[in-house]
Structures are given as C-alpha cells and as structure tokens.
C-alpha cells in the first residue's frame, strides 16, 4: 500500500508540474488558430485577385520563396525541414479553399509516387492513383487531373526509361520535382518469413534490394509486379508472399514489417517530376530540363553543348535515349541550372537551338530542396 501511495503522489506532482505548461500551450494554440484563420482569409483574397487576372492557384516558386524566407529567419528550436513540412500543409490547406487540385500518380495507394505527390502538394489535394505511367500522362492531358507526379530517375538504378519516352511524346511540361529518400521494408502478414516462398515488388525495388535478398533470403522467388503497393496487396491476401514497400503500404494493407531498410544503398533516393501545364516564374533556385538531338556528324554533341559553357550555365544531368528510328540516332535529356528567363540561360538556349536538330524545353522549375 505505501508503494501505491508513493506512485499516486508522484503522478500528482507530475500533473501539477505539467499543468501550467499545458495551459500555456493551450493558450498559444488558440493564438495560432486565430492567426491561421487570419492567414486563410487573406489567402482567399489572394485567390479572388488571381481569379480576376486568370492566374493559377498553385505557384510553386512563390511557395518555395515563403519556406526559404522562414527557414532563414528561423531561430529554433524547430528544425528547418520540420518548419518546411508545417508550412507546406498550411499553404496546401489555404490552396484548397480556392480549389482542391487533383494529382495523378502511379498507384495504387501506398506507393512512393503517392508519397512524393503529398510531399510536394501537401495533404489537401485529391490523389488519383493510376495503373501505369502512361495513364498518369493521359489523365493530365485529358484534364482528368490537374497535375501528375512520375518517377524519372533513381540514384541506384538510373533513369526510368518509360517516363523519358513519355516526356518526349507528351505536350505536358515539368513544373516541379521531388527528391524522395527511398527506405524499403520487407513485410508479410505475420512479420515472419516462415512459409514464405516469394517476394513481390516493382522491378526497380527488387533491383535496389537484390544484394540484401541474395545474402539473407536467396531461396525466395522474386516476382516483379506493377508497383510495390500491388506487391503489398498480394502479400496481404497470401501468407506465402512477402512484399517490399514503404511504411505507408504496410499500414494500408495491414502487414507487419519483418526487416527495415533493406535497400542496398543506404542513401537510395528517387527523383520525381511534376507534370502539367503550369509554367512557374523564376524562384531564384531553379533548373531547366531539355530534350535535344543533333545531326549525325562528328563533333555535333560537343558543338551543341558549347554555348552552355561559354555563358557559364552548369549542366547537372545528361542522359541519352535511342530515337527508335532504326538509324542509330539519339535524344539527349539535359538538366541545366537556372530558369530559362535568366539572362545567361536565355542567351545559351538561343545559341543552342541553332545547333540542335531538335530542341524541346520541358520546363523551368524550382529545384528540390
């Protein structure tokens, strides 16, 4: 009995110590609520002005400038990344007061593509899972979605070839990017591997975990499926199936995680791009994506890229893809630093067009943080 009295006394002392701090937090929350609603009211006024002038609701360059300014002014103890996440949701909720955007992504729900979409736009959008990358593009082109989010390259496995091909064919442009850390988990119904005979995941994810799987479970058959979420769905329905996916898929499909962080590269990241018809203004931290081809003659590629060096424009990515013409011709996918409206970038692009057999500007947009 004395032990019980001592425990109750400690709880009373704890509650007494916490009560004034909790009351202070409650008071601050009331102030925050009032200020957030004041901010939302001004955002509605901004929306009315945009509507009069036909301006788009979503301005990624403006949102980046807001977050950057707040991070620079932040004195802590909140970390800058946490601050960015908070403000992204505030701006997402404010945008939804004007218009709830629909964002297409490679589904089903629970994929990394869905995570990338919400990371970029915030939670106050309507997600539209699509069965293929082709369908993401088709939905946005047809007006069924305002934006699409598609993977373009992975730090381990390289480019997503189908996305590059679709960017070449589609009239859509790029208005943003997301660099998402990819943490793969091995999951099953029980959280154990007893009785499991195969592992299902997207081909890229299987490739990103191949060394770990070989070292730890070489006996498991590896089956490529349309997405990691589809693998999780199969695992939820069959106790002999394991899946490779992220935390969101485990929660959605009721699976238990047997092993975490099984990707071979601990710094594994996938870059996604946002597609649509939006043309962002310069943000001060931009890049421009191009597709180029050159006449089939010696030195043509060097001559094509020379204007970039002469005007001091840095190139951050250079990929080649066959033109599928049967004539050993190639398209080059190039990312350069800066916005196409920047003076030096505009001058370099003007010269570059003169040397290119084909030049398509995919978009200028804020770089991922």
Automatic annotation (TrEMBL):
Query: Which keywords label this protein?
Result: Amino-acid biosynthesis, Aromatic amino acid biosynthesis, Cytoplasm, Isomerase, Lyase, Multifunctional enzyme, Phenylalanine biosynthesis
Coiled-coil regions, chain positions? none
Q: Which reaction does it catalyse?
A: chorismate = prephenate; prephenate + H(+) = 3-phenylpyruvate + CO2 + H2O
List where in the cell it is found. Answer: Cytoplasm
Q: Name one Pfam family in it.
A: ACT
> Domain ACT: where?
289-366
Q: Which residues form the Prephenate dehydratase domain?
A: 102-277
Keyword Lyase applies: yes
Name of the protein in question: Bifunctional chorismate mutase/prephenate dehydratase
């Amino acid at each position: 009995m004395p032990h019980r009295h001592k425990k109750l006394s400690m709880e009373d002392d704890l509650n007494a110590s916490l009560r004034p701090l909790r009351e202070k937090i409650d008071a601050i929350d009331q102030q925050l609520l009032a200020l957030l609603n004041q901010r939302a009211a001004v955002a509605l006024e901004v929306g009315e002005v945009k509507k009069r002038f036909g301006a788009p609701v979503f301005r990624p360059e403006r949102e980046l400038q807001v977050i950057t300014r707040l991070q620079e002014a932040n004195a802590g103890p909140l970390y800058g990344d946490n601050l960015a996440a908070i403000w992204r949701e505030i701006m997402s909720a404010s945008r939804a007061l004007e218009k709830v955007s629909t964002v297409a992504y490679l589904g089903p729900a629970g994929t990394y593509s869905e995570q990338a979409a919400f990371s970029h736009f915030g939670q106050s959008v309507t997600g539209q899972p699509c069965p293929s990358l082709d369908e993401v593009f088709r939905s946005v082109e047809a007006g069924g979605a305002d934006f699409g989010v598609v993977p373009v390259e992975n730090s381990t496995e390289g480019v997503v070839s189908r996305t590059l091909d679709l960017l070449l064919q589609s009239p859509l442009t790029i208005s943003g990017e997301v660099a998402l850390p990819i943490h793969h988990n091995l999951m099953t119904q029980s959280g154990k591997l007893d009785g499991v005979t195969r592992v299902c995941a997207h081909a890229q994810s299987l490739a990103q975990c191949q060394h770990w799987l070989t070292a730890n479970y070489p006996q498991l058959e590896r089956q490529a499926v349309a997405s990691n979420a589809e693998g999780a769905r199969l695992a939820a329905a069959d106790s002999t199936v394991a899946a490779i996916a992220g935390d969101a898929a485990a929660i959605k499909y009721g699976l238990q995680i047997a092993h975490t962080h099984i990707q071979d590269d601990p710094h594994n990241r996938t870059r996604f791009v946002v597609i649509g018809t939006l043309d962002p203004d310069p943000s001060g931290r931009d890049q421009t994506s191009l597709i180029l081809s050159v006449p089939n003659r010696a030195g043509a590629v060097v001559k094509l890229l020379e204007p970039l060096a002469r005007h001091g424009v840095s190139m951050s990515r250079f990929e080649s893809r066959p033109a599928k013409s049967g004539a050993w011709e190639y398209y080059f996918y190039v990312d350069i630093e800066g916005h196409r409206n920047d003076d030096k970038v505009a001058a370099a692009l003007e010269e570059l067009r003169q040397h290119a057999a084909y030049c398509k500007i995919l978009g200028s947009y804020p770089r991922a943080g």
